Amino acid sequence: MRSVGGLLWGPLSDSIGRRRCVTLATALGIAGVAALMAAQEMPTLPILLAFILLYGAGFAAVTPVYVATAADHFAGRHTGKVFGVLDLGFGLGSAGGPWLAGYAFDATGSYGPALWMLIGSIAVSGTALFTAAGLRRR
Is the pLDDT of residue 138 over 60? Predict the structure, then answer.
């Protein structure tokens, strides 16, 4: 999903706009996590496939759309520094997220709290990117 999304989301955000793509990707990601939550109660193949397709399509948009949005605003000599700072945030989330999810599972005996944290993270990052995409270019 990420490979295909990387090829599709960038050009799509060029044609329909970054904000529309962010909105769509955020909605797809949240719907995918909701499907995974539903699979906990009723683990059927269609629900798991819905998770894979929805979450995968939403997650696939992250890199091309955030890179394009950042390049829109910070093109030039400091673009590499900007991407370095952004990747630091992704790295911290990638390192801390699984640990935090494991802690939440150990504390509650359920992945529900971790999935709700994931939905919150998707909503916050989608809102931040949506806001950044709407700012006037420098």
Answer: no
Does residue 128 surpass a pLDDT of 60? yes
Token pair belonging to 65: 């759309």
Dist CA 12 CA 19 (whole Å): 11
The tokens 């931040």 sit on which residue? 128
Tell me the whole-structure pTM to 2 decimals: 0.86
Q: Which of 96, 131, 127, 100 is nearest to 114 (CA)?
A: 100
Give dist(CA 119, CA 27) in Å, integer. 10
Domain around 127: 2-134
- Crossing angle between the packed helical segments 112-134 and 18-41, to the nearest 10 degrees: 170
Counted domains in the chain: 1
Question: How does 14-30 read in b/e, with b if 16+ C-beta sit within 10 Å?
Answer: eeeebbebbbbbbebbb
Task: Please state at what angle helix 112-134 crosses helix 62-74, rounded to 10 degrees.
Answer: 30
